[in-house]
Design a protein that fits this description.
The protein has about 1250 residues and is α+β, with helices and mostly antiparallel strands. The protein is built from 31 helices and 53 strands. The strands form eleven sheets. The protein has a twelve-stranded antiparallel beta barrel with strand order 23-24-25-26-27-28-30-33-34-37-38-39. β13 and β14 form a beta hairpin.
Length: about 1250
């Protein structure tokens, strides 16, 4: 009882408060302020097909059809039942009721059973048809019917299905709810409970309005409580209530349950709720009150805290229909257009519908306008303005960066057809340098205008940002043109200006909303190398202006405005370039910042807004990896490239401040987030450069905003590659007659020649005093030289033309200097440092490697300027060694760039060049004999070097020479025959000996046969029979010569391991007894031990030789023979082979490097031999020579035994046949014939005994019985 009283008291208190508020509203009327939000436009009659009492109004999805629900009660005194129907009207202009046309009686929907004979649908004289509602797809229509009398239970919802959307002529009954008056469907919600009285006036309530949520899973019904309330009938209060139901299946009204945590009690607000409608987003409800009291015939507005959730709400207010239009006194039915800027209310007085304009969407109360973000097209238009501001900054920045990237990608293709070098010396001593550097020089006056380069780029952007929960989809299109100019800076950098004009077009949604923006941007861009020429710092600074035309279309009505903006932006990017073969990998990091100020604007039209100034800020962090592949030919540069980049958009919000033009009472400040935090950028593109340096590049780029949308960009750029010019003007110090002006007007194919002035310490002072580098570091870099002590330090390069030496990553690691005044040496290189090893580098290999791959051949020339000259003529697969003979390591580098291992040696055609060529052949002879390289020799006999040849011939001619270069063995044969008078016996014999020695090197008999025939023809000078004879003789001699150290046939198994042990001992002594190194070299040469038989020991010995050549010179062994050259001897013995050898082998032969530790760290037994090292060393050398002699003895025994001896009888027989009449010494004649017939066998016999004597000599030597006099 206490609980009931508490409930009753609480209810009465709430009822009193509500009535008090209503009294205040009448005392202080604000209907005029409501009316200011709503404007009557027009009204039209909808009374076709004898229709009476409009109860519900609905539109199809595009506003071209309007539907009304009616019930037609029988006239007083008639026994006929009421008629329930839906009428259809066509609107020629969407949502304009003045353009209505009745669809006809054939297009109506008869709902009650009396009309269609089905026995289904609302029926009976007591039933009354009220509201109408379509499903979202227009395939279902629902109506509600309540009793016209209090004591009747017939409250139901009916469902009719259509065969095509919104075609009500095809309606057919599907289902209906149970009686909604059941207690379990009425009581228990927060809207209160219906009465439970008895008798005629028992508390019945009538359903009169219907709505669904956007998914059809919730049903909302509004009930009109009827009857007279008495406190003693046992019932509760009479209530007008909005109830919320849950449907287990969308739009299935047969299975519904009351949501007890929701519902709205409206007893004191709405007396006779007729119909209701939700706003488009489900956050507002509008209810028609058809009050018996004319003053209470109103439209009510309720706001929900959450869409389609009546558990939490606010009653905003109401407006009397008569205040909106004096004739509008019987409101029934309500509807809105799609945008919510038009409201339609029916009137059962003459069956009219009134059309109203609203100041703001779905709002009739002043100060209650919703934010524009509740309209997806509206939100998308605001987002589009923000996105264009940010996108314009991105595009302007990217255009400038594309230019910088393009220049760097193509820096090695600078105007190959016009090499301008102006060398203007007063000093005749150094005029010879002109011929060393320039190839086809044309003197020109300096034209400063050529330091500025112009370019242009066109870009096309298309994209789409998909529909979101708050924003409509956007289609993006941008066309832009950029023109720019740039130039190189003093420190190998680039700077420039770019002006971009763009037209941006964004289509929003599907209703015709559009944003057109013209953009104008001026961008300064610059790049400079950091640390070295592969790492770069790019900077961008720019300003811009935007001019926009806004068109927002809401239900066919245009809202227009103009808006301007200005922006400031900047970018910093750091990138590295990693070259590998013909690929370049470019990792990069980038930070973008921008600030755009968009001006205020005011729209014109229904629902217009007044927008304040807006700030759009952008911050982005990017990290990416780009790849460039060089596919260039000799005439065209062709590169393709791609990029993948992650972008973090860390500042995506912007505040949008505005009011409605017709209701400035509410100021809105919406924070909008555009774009995605996580983004991926990908691009692919190509570069093409014509022979005249005219260029075009094309880039396709996609920016994928993860979870939202994407944009696609196409960049097309035309222009000329800026050819960097390095201008120098130096006075060469010295006597008064040496003052000379030195100008280089162009960087020669990116070789970046320089000049070292004739000063002892210019560079030293700069590095130590300006750059603050420590002296130790400068010395270790080899840039200065220290004499005796640190007090005497001076520049290494003085009065020299400087040629930088680059590694494979394009980094300068050393320098070469060419003397300008005759000082020796003529060419001076940097010493070896931590970053520079002569024997492991090739000059211009970084520039030539990709072209070596394309041509499948490498050309090796002698010097820097030969390479520079060749590259200037387009022969870009050429390199040079760095003052050392070409070694196996360098050959292996070249072989990795050519599939068929084609190496062409084109050294100078003088004696020095031929000797250098022979040294190369000797170095790689074994590789060629085993088909590991295809070594060819090009000797241009009529010209000194390639540079001289190209001055008088075309590059195509040189390419032909390369293609027809001689195989190295052919060149060697030519050298043997060159200028030899074969008519002289001694010369002929030397030629034969040389040929035998050469041809015996071939392991393949087929190759030997080919060359035996070839040289025999040359020896015979065209006489065929003689050629056959020469071939037979040469074949025998080659066969006899080929045993030396190569055949294992005459080797005993027990000797193999012993020989390996002795060869290892030689390596031990050579590493650990540097004082004996020269002795070991001399002894090996004297004993003709030219090669070690054990494979891994041979590789170690070859590595030792390579290290010594790299640290000394090619001819160091010959120079060591000079007893006065003590300094060289000291340098030779001081080479730390124990330290250098493991590193060298690790780079060149990993398998052998695993065995080197045994030699580096010998066992205790070997260390004991060091006490008498030279004696033990001599014994080891004798053993090695003894194995060689034993093999030769076995060979001679076999050869001796294979001879068929002629007997004395044979000799006497021959003498008898050839007897003469003169007396002779018969014994002597027999002896001479015997020797002649058995000459080969006798020779082998003699050689065998001589070899045995030598073995005895070696045994004595080995045992310590050796005397220098023996």
């Amino acid at each position: 009882m206490v609980q009931v009283l508490n409930y009753q008291q609480h209810f009465n208190l709430m009822k009193f408060i509500k009535k008090f508020i209503l009294i205040l509203l009448f005392i202080f009327p604000i209907s005029s302020s409501y009316g200011a939000m709503v404007t009557s436009v027009q009204n039209e009659t909808f009374a076709d097909n004898s229709s009476r009492e409009i109860n519900g109004i609905a539109f199809n999805e595009d506003g071209t059809k309007l539907f009304t629900s009616y019930h037609m009660l029988a006239n007083p005194g008639e026994e006929a039942e009421a008629t329930y129907k839906l009428n259809e009207y066509n609107l020629s202009t969407p949502y304009d009721i003045s353009t209505r046309t009745y669809a006809g009686n054939n297009e109506k929907c008869e709902l009650n059973s009396e009309s269609d004979g089905s026995g289904n649908g609302p029926s009976g004289a007591s039933a009354k048809l009220h509201d109408i509602k379509f499903s979202n797809d227009g395939m279902k229509v629902f109506v509600v019917s309540g009793p016209s009398a209090n004591n009747i239970d017939s409250d139901k919802v009916y469902r009719f299905d259509l065969t095509s959307p919104y075609d009500i002529s095809t309606c057919s009954y599907v289902s209906e709810t149970t009686n909604l008056d059941h207690m379990n469907l009425q009581n228990g919600s927060q809207a209160g409970s219906r009465g439970s009285g008895t008798g005629v006036n028992k508390e019945k309530n009538r359903v009169q309005g219907i709505e669904f949520n956007d998914t059809g899973t919730k049903l909302f019904l509004i009930f009109h409580g009827q009857g007279t309330h008495t406190d003693d009938d046992g019932g509760g209060p009479r209530l007008t209530r909005l109830l919320e139901y849950k449907l287990s299946t969308p739009y299935d009204i047969t299975d519904l349950s009351l949501v007890t945590t929701a519902g709205i009690e409206l007893e004191d607000e709405v007396a006779n709720p007729n119909t209701m409608r939700f706003s488009a987003n489900g956050k507002r409800i509008f209810i028609i009150d058809h009050n018996a009291n004319a003053a209470g015939r109103e439209v009510h507005q309720i706001s929900l805290s959450n869409p389609y959730d009546t558990s939490s709400y606010t009653i905003d207010g109401r407006v009397r229909t008569a205040d909106l239009d004096g004739d509008h006194t019987e409101p029934r039915g309500i509807a809105f257009n799609k945008s919510g800027l038009k409201m339609y209310v029916g009137d059962d007085n003459e069956q009219r519908i009134y059309e109203f304009d609203l100041v703001c969407p779905f709002n009739i109360i002043a100060g209650k306008c919703p934010p524009i973000t509740e309209n997806k097209d509206r939100t998308a238009m605001v987002e589009a303005q923000i996105e264009i501001a940010k996108r314009t900054i991105d595009h302007s920045t990217d255009t400038a960066l594309n230019r910088l990237k393009w220049i760097r990608r193509n820096k090695d293709k600078q105007n190959l057809t016009n090499l301008n070098i102006d060398l203007n010396f007063n000093n005749q001593i150094i005029n010879s340098l002109t011929e060393a550097v320039k190839t086809s020089t044309t003197k020109k006056k300096e034209d400063k205008k050529q330091d500025v380069f112009y370019w242009s780029e066109g870009s096309i952007v298309v994209g789409k940002i998909g529909d979101t929960s708050i924003s409509s989809a956007k289609k993006i299109g941008t066309d832009a043109i950029t023109i720019g100019r740039d130039q190189f800076t003093d420190k190998n950098g680039i700077k420039g200006l770019a002006f971009r004009v763009g037209r941006n077009d964004v289509d929003v949604g599907t209703s015709g909303s559009n944003l057109d923006t013209d953009t104008y941007n001026l961008t300064y861009y610059a790049t400079s190398p950091i640390k070295d020429d592969t790492k770069f710092l790019d900077t961008i600074v720019g300003i811009g202006k935007l001019s926009s035309n806004l068109l927002t279309v809401l239900d066919g009505k245009n809202l227009t405005a103009d808006r301007n903006g200005k922006q400031l932006y900047g970018t910093i990017r750091i990138k590295d370039e990693i070259k590998k073969n013909n690929f370049t990998l470019i990792p990069s990091g980038r930070f973008d910042i921008g600030h755009t100020i968009l001006g205020s604007y005011k729209e014109s039209g229904i629902g217009a807004i007044d927008v304040k100034k807006q700030h759009v800020r952008s911050k982005k962090i990017r990290t990416g990896l780009a790849v460039v592949e060089d596919l260039s030919s000799d005439d065209y540069t062709f590169k393709r490239h791609g990029k993948l980049e992650y972008v973090a958009n860390i500042d995506r919000s912007s505040n949008f401040k505005y009011t409605y033009v017709s209701d400035g009472s509410t100021k809105f400040n919406e924070t909008l987030h555009t774009g995605s935090l996580h983004n991926l950028n990908g691009e692919i593109g190509i570069d093409i450069i014509m022979p005249n340096s005219f260029s075009i590049f094309l880039i396709y780029e996609r920016n994928q905003e993860l979870g939202t949308g994407h944009t696609d960009k196409i960049h097309i750029a035309l222009g000329y590659l800026p050819n960097k010019k390095t201008n120098y003007a130096f006075n060469l110090e010295g006597s008064e007659n040496i003052g000379s002006e030195f100008k280089i007007s162009k960087n020669i194919n990116d070789f970046e020649l320089g000049y070292a002035p004739n000063s002892l310490n210019n560079l030293l002072n700069y590095l130590s005093k300006v750059e603050k580098f420590p002296l130790k570091l400068i010395l270790s870099a080899g840039l200065v030289v220290s004499k005796d002590n640190a007090d005497k330090v001076y520049d290494r390069f003085r009065n020299r033309l400087i040629v930088p030496i680059f590694d494979m990553q394009g980094r300068v690691v050393a320098f070469g200097g060419r003397s300008l005044d005759g000082q020796e040496p003529k060419y001076l290189n940097s010493p070896e440092t931590e970053v520079f090893e002569k024997g492991k580098m090739l000059f211009a290999f970084d520039k030539a490697s990709s072209n070596i791959r394309k041509r499948d051949k490498a050309v090796v020339v002698e010097g820097y300027f030969d390479v520079i000259s060749l590259h200037s003529k387009g022969i870009t697969n050429s390199v040079a060694s760095l003052g050392t003979a070409l070694n196996k390591y360098q050959i292996s580098q070249l072989c990795r760039c050519t599939d068929n291992k084609n190496i062409i040696i084109n050294f100078d055609s003088d004696n020095a060049g031929r000797l250098a060529t022979k040294r190369v052949i000797n170095e790689v002879e074994s590789l060629s004999l085993h088909d590991q390289i295809n070594l060819k020799i090009l000797e241009i006999k009529s010209f000194k070097d390639p540079d001289e040849y190209l001055k008088e011939n075309k590059p195509e001619d040189y390419f032909n020479l390369i293609d027809n270069a001689s195989f190295w063995i052919d060149w060697e044969i030519d050298q043997i025959f060159d200028n030899k008078d074969l008519s002289k016996s001694d010369i002929f014999q030397n030629v034969i000996s040389s040929l035998v020695k050469l041809l015996s090197k071939f392991p393949q008999s087929a190759t030997r046969t080919h060359y035996l025939q070839k040289v025999s023809e040359r020896l015979s000078m065209g006489q065929a029979r003689l050629a056959i004879k020469f071939e037979e003789d040469l074949r025998k001699q080659v066969k006899g010569f080929r045993w030396h150290g190569r055949s294992k046939k005459f080797e005993q198994p027990s000797e193999v391991s012993q020989r390996e042990k002795n060869e290892s001992e030689i390596i031990y002594y050579y590493l650990h007894c540097p004082e004996h190194r020269l002795f070991i070299r001399e002894e090996l040469l004297k004993r003709e031990i030219n090669i070690f038989n054990t494979e891994y020991i041979r590789i170690i010995w070859e590595s030792i030789s390579t290290i010594e050549v790299n640290n000394l010179s090619v001819n160091y062994l010959d120079d060591l023979k000079d007893p006065n050259n003590k300094q060289l001897n000291n340098e030779f013995t001081s080479i730390n082979l124990i330290s250098l050898l493991p590193d060298h082998l690790a780079l060149n032969d990993l398998e052998v490097s695993n065995k080197i530790n045994t030699f580096i760290n010998p066992d205790e037994l070997f260390l004991t031999t060091l006490k008498n090292s030279k004696h033990n060393l001599l014994g080891t050398l004798s053993l090695l020579e003894r194995y060689k002699s034993l093999k030769r003895c076995r060979h001679l025994i076999e050869s001796w035994g294979s001879q068929r001896l002629k007997t004395l009888e044979n000799c006497i027989s021959i003498l008898i046949d050839n007897a003469s009449l003169e007396p002779t010494d018969s014994n002597k004649e027999i002896e001479d014939v015997f020797k002649d017939l058995n000459s080969d066998a006798i020779k082998f016999q003699e050689l065998y005994y001589l070899e045995r004597e030598h073995i005895n000599f070696l045994d004595k030597q080995r045992c310590g019985n050796f005397s220098s006099n023996q």
